[in-house]
Amino acid sequence: MDQTAIVAMQDRFLDDMEAILAETASTARKRVVMLSGGSDSFLVVAVLRHLLADAPLHTVTIRGDDPRDAEGADAVAAHFRTAHVVRQVTVDEIVAHLDLVRGTGYRKTTKVFSHICYQLALASCDIAGATVYAGHAGDVLQGNSDKIYADVEASAEAQGLSPDDLRTRLKAEYYDRSQAAFFAGAGDQAGRHIASIVEGLGGEIVLPYRDPRLAYVSRIPYEVLRPAQKRFVKDALRRRYGLGDLVERRRASIQEGTGIYDSFKARLEELARTQGLSRRELVARLSA
Hints:
The protein has helices at about 5-25, 40-50, 70-80, 90-95, 110-125, 140, 150-160, 165-185, 190-200, 220-225, 230-240, 255-260, 260-275, 280-285; strands at about 30-35, 60-65, 85-90, 130-135, 205. The chain is α/β, with parallel strands linked by helices. Helix 1 (about 5-25) crosses helix 2.
């Protein structure tokens, strides 16, 4: 794919993202974006501000002991002139709200941690009747997952493919599986638990990266998309909206970005031992 074709594909992607977000952005409802320090939520804020130059736009960020992710979000909020809420969370507070995951059916500690953090953050900015936008599943659409490329060099050689050709196929298959599971209601798919939280608090969720109209992005060649660096998206944003180096975001999961996940795991381990359970068993019991 030559540079002209890449630019055309970037334009198509941003045109489609603008169209998807415009369907809800034009309403009179309060608009809230879950903003991390990464690229996926950054893109959502950038497009919404482009569509709504002067309209009120709210953002909410979760902050733990590590300030870097939250500080990155702060810079984005300041640039795009959003009404920004930073919700500080601590391990003690998360442990005190373990009841929030009752009935969710979670099996992973990561889900328990993120669910409680998201619910505490969203509850702090009154989303009842609001439209809430989240960048969840951006990694799914772009194929940003180390696990799907395990042993790709050897597998590519065995199949007579170049490693990047195999990566392109693997990320498309990964996207297809995730989309099918998500729309079938599987609770472990990216975006599903944030949707349940938002709806439980009386808001309307918008997950633009889950929109089937963007499925073609999962087929863009791996070497063009460069999912680990989000290069395709960053270059598109830089060129269309003139955002310069602001597009260079630090990617981190909520677990890594808050800097308190390991301490939370340790607290769950202690709690599990007092009940004669493994941490996995405790998570299942808390989520039952």
